[in-house]
Amino acid sequence: MSKTKRITLLPLQQSIDVNKGSHLHDILFNYGVEFPCGGHARCRGCRVKIKKGSLPVTNLQKNILDNKELDEGWRLACQGVVKDNLTLELGQWKSDILTDDSNFNFSSQKGYGIAIDLGTTTLAAQLVNRETGEVIAVETALNPQAKYGGDIMTRIDAASRLHKQDEMQTIIHSKLIDMIMALFRSSNKKLSRLKRISIVGNAVMHNIFCGIDVEPMGFHPFEPNSNDLEVYKPSGLGWPLHEDVIIEFLPGVASFIGSDILMGVWAKNMEESRGLKVLVDLGTNGEIMVGRKDKILTASTAAGPAFEGAGISMGMRAVTGAISSVITRDGDIIPKVLGVNEAKGICGSGLVDAVSVYLNHGFIKPDGRFTNGESITVQDTVVITQKDIRELQLAKGAIATGIRLLLKEFNATENDVEEVFLSGAFGNYISKRSARRIGLLNFPQKKITTAGNTALLGAKMALFNSENQFENLRQKMTHIDLSMHPDFTDVFAELVNFPEK
After folding, report:
1. What burial class does residue 369 get, using C-beta atoms within 10 Å of its C-beta: 0-12 exposed, 13-18 middle, 19+ buried?
2. Distance separating alpha carbons of residues 347 and 323, to the nearest angstrom
3. Looking at the domain assignment, is residue 496 inside a domain?
């Protein structure tokens, strides 16, 4: 009997040969299947559908998938072991990753630089001509660490309790050098002209990349052992580059406020503003910056994974088959599905839109309860449950509370803010109107600006930075622990519900 088995993946139309007994968890991540809970059968994020062959139904799967789904061939990939040839339909297989094409001021320098945004879920790298500021090539990918968990806390648990941090460091080092080499291959430029690499990421990504124990970030006060600038030579990372290339993982601020946020504040010149400005990065761990020339305050909130589709009964990232937006036209509610006609789930921006529309139609009350029943069908078989609404309320309530409390430190309200920057992928795609309707952003809509990938923009600016200009900004920033704020509970209770129409 053959020791290798063939897996055919639909709709990719790709076939791969694997050893009998291989775990799907180790195979399918590279083909777009996500494992938000780290492969512990606690969510539905890694669902695949068997078209040919068989995978046993485990007791853990029976706790997550109902009988109808199991009969239709749905299985959790994290529980799958290859015994026979398989044909699998992947629910998630295509994803757009946010890069940056912003203009910025720079002083011309010799050679090339590479800016890297090392995100929890996605990776983006740009090759930059430092003489002209031109972006020559772009590479994006999923972060291979995501197979250990989709959110930061699950990743920390895998690194510390399951002792996977060394593995995570090795695979991210390997993935990034692969992307670096791909930048030069696709652009046909000389690798010998590379002078500098700037990497940004949140504090957990920073610590894993740099080999700093992340365990302290798993419990209060959630402070990393280090969030400082780390400088490497290629040989220190095992990267086959000329030894005079400077590799920097840029510094963060405190707690979960990493270099991705610091660079965003720097890119938007918040420290030079006379008026009050706000920068919000929406994700599993929402980061908030409020400030002006004399002072900048930062905070992070455990917003939960609702904005990224995780923790939602039929949630998924903004990939093929996801309901990404919901609009009304002539009284009809119209969902938009990415890439195909049949909806497979709903992503964060679609959830925010849907709830906004249902609030306006009176299907959801301000306290989050449905007017009728325990769920609403958005399209096809995709439903939003009462639990999903609660997850969104908790997420948006945490962000809105963080903003309100930081503004309070300036004796200011939302009306006193000059401009609000929404950064990151979710901030780029969310409807500002819907965000206001659900009470996530309680600002006049004209003040809210989609800022794009400010982390990657800041990393590019750092390629031209010879005087550590962002260090002065870092010293101006003060981190506020919202969990210890005396008004947190009262303000959260006020903001967790949806606003009246």
Report:
1. exposed
2. 6
3. no
- Distance between CA atoms of 355 and 433, rounded to whole angstroms? 12
Same domain for 135 and 242, yes or no, is yes
The CATH number given to whatever domain includes residue 74 is 3.10.20.30
Q: Are residues 53 and 120 in the same domain?
A: no
Comparing CA positions, the residue from 380, 389, 285, 395 lying closest to residue 323 is: 380
Give the dihedral sign, CA 381/387/393/395: negative
Residues 152 and 86 both lie in one domain:
no
The terminus-to-terminus CA distance of the chain in angstroms comes to 66
Q: Indicate the helix (H) or strand (E) that contains 135.
A: strand 135-142
Q: What is the CATH number of the domain that holds 182?
A: 3.30.420.480
Give the pLDDT score at 158.
93
Report residue 45 as tokens: 């994020």
For residue 422, the SS3 value is strand
Amino acid code (one letter) for 497 = N
41 vs 249 pLDDT, higher one:
249
DSSP annotation of 336 reads: E
Domain extent for 20: 4-90
Q: Is the per-residue pLDDT at 29 higher than 80?
A: no
Regarding whether 251 and 144 lie in a shared domain, the answer is: yes
- Same-domain pairing of 77 and 181: no
Provide the CA 447 distance to its chain's centre, in angstroms.
24
CA distance 272 to 275: 9
Task: For residue 224, report the phi and psi dihedrals to the nearest 5 degrees.
Answer: -70, 155
In a domain, 260, yes or no: yes
pLDDT at 21 over 80: yes
Residue 96 reports pLDDT greater than 70: no
Which letter, b or e, does each residue of 332-341 get, where b requires 16 or more Cβ atoms within 10 Å of its Cβ? Answer: ebebebbeee
Count of structural domains, the chain: 2
What is the Cα–Cα distance from 345 to 337, expressed in whole angstroms?
Answer: 9
Mean residue pLDDT of the chain comes to 89
Same domain, 53 and 84: yes
Crossing angle of helices 454-462 and 259-267, in 10° steps, is: 80
Amino acid at 110: K
